[in-house]
């Protein structure tokens, strides 16, 4: 079975139906990029995948866990899903190292010393080996986002979700973060990435999903999506993005 | 268990056992309540001991009749309320025997007869009741003077202002806010002899009898013994000796103070013991209440931000209730109303009642800002913590609380200072803390300005120390 299976997903806030019946499967080692206009429901969809939002209707199965099943321990599922947010959400009262080791130590995955060793190794891979003892507020946006990625990886997740990880960054910082993500993809991580970085989508994605008005309008290989868009909505969207 | 958890459990256990001890013990020892500031019937002498006609008569009778008793000096109003609520067994406080009171209390035979007089400021031109028209008259609640003045109010057309304390009443007349006051003759003449700048301008009216009171239908044996003892001390001359001792002498000879002790420093050293014990009571109440209120506040704050509807609903209801209620009403409710409701002679010691009062009131305020502090932590923090697989409570403890509490520190410091000051309100239920000590000392020496200045300085010193301590903690945390 696919790693992520989403069937007929609906989500409403009061009368406002934001997701109107989504279907999507993500395979092992696959990198899926989601694009679409603002307000189309991309973040909402991503947040449903680790239960930060509870769907109004529909089914989500992740690594065999059915999220809508009351018996599912959501904390166990979340351990398998790393999430990276647009605004990093580092814990400001903890040092970089403590940010990374908090969850593994609290959840008994690793002893404190093991967790610190893992954390230093992860910091090394994101190019921040010297920042272990720094406090988050002393870091640049790009550095913060790389720490956030390391923090998510510390739980050794099977899937990584990214919600516009570079859109709050100064342009010169974007490259560092995207490099880390590219390396992750190359190492075979299953990833769902909401992004406005069309270049990244073209280069890294196995599949691109175009969302608009709470529905998946079109999906396909990057080449097909960007060079041969079918629906007028996607053509219109790409027109606008490229002209920016 | 962690260290702090052990501390909390131990504290609760201590409070609990204290509670039960105080509810069960004292089967044979009677608790007799008296007023605090009604010289020469009762007043505090140097060193904090109570003296006065009532006190000495009670002592003499108890000796004759072998009565075991514990004296409890509180305000007159509180004494009467506590008697009707079964919190004390008897009251001896220059209490007039009236038809109204006989409905709720049984009285002993009269042990003193006194009339009401009108007193005015030394330089006042008022001599007759008719000159009071349109003016304000100061009265002390529950006294014969108050009852008499009320009965002639409409005839002479004056306004009334009530006080809980004789000394404040005298002062109001002295500074000219009120034109006159009505007071029992022996009390007024004793006060004037001891330096109150008032003069008596009327003869004695509405002579009334003072009696020892118990709750109606209760403690008949105690009442009987009192009457027998009264008869005995009248017969052997003890009674006369006691009355003369107080009505024929000035305050200094009774309290042991000398003229040189009327300077600021002199007053301070003279009253060091009394002030010290009041200060200690204030500090004890403050510290325990701050701890309990902080625990309650944290619980209310956490409930307030919990997912779901029940937690927040409980939290805001409790905050609404105890923040909305004036501290004094809450204190009376817990100390007098609540035991009344339960019945069966259930009692709460004043200190425990005071502590619970402060805990609920300050805890409600603390709960409100703790909730606000947690809400001020960005939602993304909880989401990030949960997305890592941390359970709700772990996320709360490790991520939200440390950040929220940092935001709350200034509010905590503020609340600690408010708690310290609020302890003074608990004097209404008879707790002799720093403010009440001031009232007591002034009741016997009438040195209002110097003593209040002294008390104010002490409060400022503690608040300064508390602020320093808090700032130090704040610096450590950041
Ligand atoms: N908690 C919420 N309560 C009510 N409405 C919400 C909530 N979260 C999102 N919405 C609404 O859902 C819609 C989709 O929002 P969402 O954040 O998923 O869009 P998006 O595709 O991620 O947009 P962007 O590219 O701007 O991030 C928007 O109209 C938004 O106003
Ligand atoms: Mg979004």
Predict the CATH topology of chain A. Rossmann fold
**What is the molecular shape of chain B?**
elongated
SS-based structural class of chain B?
A: alpha/beta
Named at the architecture level, the CATH assignment of the largest domain in chain B is: Orthogonal Bundle
Largest sheet of chain B: 6 strands, mixed
CATH superfamily of chain A: P-loop containing nucleotide triphosphate hydrolases
Mean pLDDT of chain A: 93
The name of the CATH superfamily of the largest domain in chain B reads MetI-like
Q: What bound compounds does this protein have? A: adenosine-5'-triphosphate, magnesium ion
Helical element count of chain B? 19
β-strand amount of chain B: 5-15%
Radius of gyration of chain B: 26 Å
Protein name (chain B): Glutamine ABC superfamily ATP binding cassette transporter, substrate binding and permease protein [Lactobacillus plantarum ZJ316]
Signal peptide (chain B): 1-25
Family (chain B): Belongs to the binding-protein-dependent transport system permease family.
Organism (chain B): Lactiplantibacillus mudanjiangensis
Helix and strand topology:
The complex is a heterodimer of chains A (244) and B (478).
Chain A (H helix, E strand, L loop, with lengths): L3 E10 L2 E11 L4 E5 L6 H8 L7 E6 L2 E2 L7 H6 L1 E4 L11 H11 L5 H14 L15 H13 L5 E5 L7 H16 L3 E5 L3 H7 L2 E6 L2 E6 L1 H6 L4 H12 L1
Parallel strand pairs in A: 3-8, 3-9, 6-7, 7-8
Antiparallel strand pairs in A: 1-2, 1-4, 4-5, 9-10
Chain B lengths: L2 H22 L5 E5 L8 E2 L5 E2 L1 H13 L3 E5 L2 H9 L5 E2 L7 H4 L2 E3 L4 E10 L14 E5 L3 H13 L2 E5 L2 H9 L5 E5 H9 L4 E3 L4 E6 L2 E3 L4 H16 L2 H10 L3 H5 L8 H7 L1 H34 L4 H15 L2 H16 L7 H27 L2 H9 L4 H31 L11 H12 L2 H30 L1
Parallel strand pairs in B: 1-4, 1-5, 8-9, 8-10
Antiparallel strand pairs in B: 2-3, 5-13, 6-13, 7-10, 7-11, 7-12
Helix pairs in contact in B: 2-8, 2-9, 12-13, 12-15, 12-17, 12-18, 13-15, 14-15, 15-17, 16-17, 17-19, 18-19
The complex binds adenosine-5'-triphosphate and magnesium ion.
Magnesium ion binds next to helix 1 of chain A.
Pfam families (chain B): BPD_transp_1, SBP_bac_3
InterPro entries (chain B): AA_ABC_transptr_permease_3TM, ArtM/GltK/GlnP/TcyL/YhdX-like, Iontro_rcpt_C, MetI-like, MetI-like_sf, Solute-binding_3/MltF_N
Keywords (chain B): Cell membrane, Membrane, Signal, Transmembrane, Transmembrane helix, Transport
């Amino acid at each position: 079975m696919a790693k992520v299976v989403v069937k007929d997903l609906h989500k409403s806030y009061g009368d406002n139906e934001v997701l109107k019946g989504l279907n999507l499967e993500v395979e092992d080692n696959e990198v899926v990029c989601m694009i679409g206009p603002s307000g189309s429901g991309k973040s909402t969809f991503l947040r449903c995948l680790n239960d930060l939002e509870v769907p109004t209707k529909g089914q989500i199965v992740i690594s065999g866990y059915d999220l809508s099943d009351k018996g599912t321990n959501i904390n166990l599922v979340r351990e398998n899903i790393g999430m990276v947010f647009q605004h990093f959400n580092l814990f400001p009262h903890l040092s970089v190292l403590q940010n990374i080791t908090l969850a593994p130590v609290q959840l008994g995955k690793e002893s404190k010393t093991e967790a610190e060793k893992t954390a230093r190794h992860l910091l090394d891979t994101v190019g921040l080996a010297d920042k272990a003892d720094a406090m988050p507020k002393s870091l640049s946006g790009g550095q913060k986002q790389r720490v956030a990625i390391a923090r998510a990886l510390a739980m050794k997740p099977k899937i990584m979700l990214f919600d516009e990880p570079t859109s709050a960054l100064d342009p010169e910082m974007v490259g560092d973060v995207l490099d880390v993500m590219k390396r992750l993809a190359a190492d075979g991580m299953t990833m769902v990435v909401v992004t406005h970085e069309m270049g990244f989508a073209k280069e890294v994605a196995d599949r691109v999903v175009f969302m608009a008005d709470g529905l998946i309008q079109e999906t396909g290989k990057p080449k097909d999506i960007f060079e041969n868009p079918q629906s007028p909505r996607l053509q219109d969207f790409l027109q606008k993005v490229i002209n920016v | 268990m962690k260290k702090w958890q052990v501390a909390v459990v131990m504290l609760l256990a201590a409070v609990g056992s204290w509670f039960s001890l105080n509810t069960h013990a004292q089967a044979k020892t009677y608790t007799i309540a008296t007023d605090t500031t009604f010289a020469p019937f009762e007043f505090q002498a140097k060193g904090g001991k109570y003296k006065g006609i009532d006190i000495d008569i009670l002592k003499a009778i108890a000796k004759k009749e072998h009565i075991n008793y514990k004296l409890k000096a509180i305000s007159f109003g509180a004494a009467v309320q506590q008697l009707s609520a079964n919190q004390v067994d008897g009251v001896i406080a220059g209490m007039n025997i009236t038809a109204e009171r006989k409905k709720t209390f049984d009285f002993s035979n009269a042990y003193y007869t006194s009339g009401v007089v009108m007193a005015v400021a030394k330089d006042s031109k008022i001599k007759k009741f008719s000159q009071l028209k349109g003016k304000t008259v100061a009265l002390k609640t529950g006294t014969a003077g108050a009852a008499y003045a009320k009965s002639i109010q409409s005839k002479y057309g004056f306004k009334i202002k009530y006080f809980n304390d004789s000394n404040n009443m005298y002062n109001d007349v002295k500074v000219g806010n009120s034109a006159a006051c009505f007071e029992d003759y022996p009390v007024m003449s004793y006060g004037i002899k001891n330096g109150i700048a008032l003069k008596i301008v009327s003869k004695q009216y509405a002579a009334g009898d003072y009696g020892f009171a118990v709750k109606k239908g209760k403690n008949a044996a105690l009442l009987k013994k009192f009457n027998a003892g009264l008869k005995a001390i009248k017969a052997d001359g003890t009674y006369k000796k006691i009355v003369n001792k107080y009505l024929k002498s000035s305050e200094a000879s009774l309290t042991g103070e000398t003229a040189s002790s009327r300077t600021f420093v002199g007053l301070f050293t003279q009253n060091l013991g009394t002030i010290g014990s009041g200060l200690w009571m204030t500090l004890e109440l403050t510290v325990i209440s701050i701890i309990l209120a902080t625990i309650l506040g944290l619980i209310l704050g956490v409930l307030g931000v919990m997912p779901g509807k029940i937690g927040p609903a409980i939290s805001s209801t409790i905050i609404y209730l105890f923040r909305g209620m004036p501290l004094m009403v809450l204190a009376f409710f817990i100390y007098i109303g609540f035991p009344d409701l339960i019945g069966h002679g259930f009692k709460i010691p004043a200190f425990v009642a005071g502590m619970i009062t402060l805990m609920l009131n300050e805890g409600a305020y603390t709960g409100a800002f703790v909730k606000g502090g947690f809400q001020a932590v960005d939602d993304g923090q909880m989401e990030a913590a949960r997305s890592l697989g941390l359970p709700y409570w772990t996320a709360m403890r490790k991520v939200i609380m440390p950040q929220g509490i940092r935001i709350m520190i200034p509010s905590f410091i503020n609340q600690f200072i408010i708690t310290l000051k609020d302890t003074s309100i608990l004097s209404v239920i008879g707790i002799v803390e720093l403010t009440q000590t001031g009232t007591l000392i002034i009741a016997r020496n009438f040195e209002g300005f110097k003593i209040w200045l002294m008390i104010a300085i002490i409060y400022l010193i503690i608040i300064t120390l508390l602020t320093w301590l808090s700032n130090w903690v704040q610096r450590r945390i950041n």
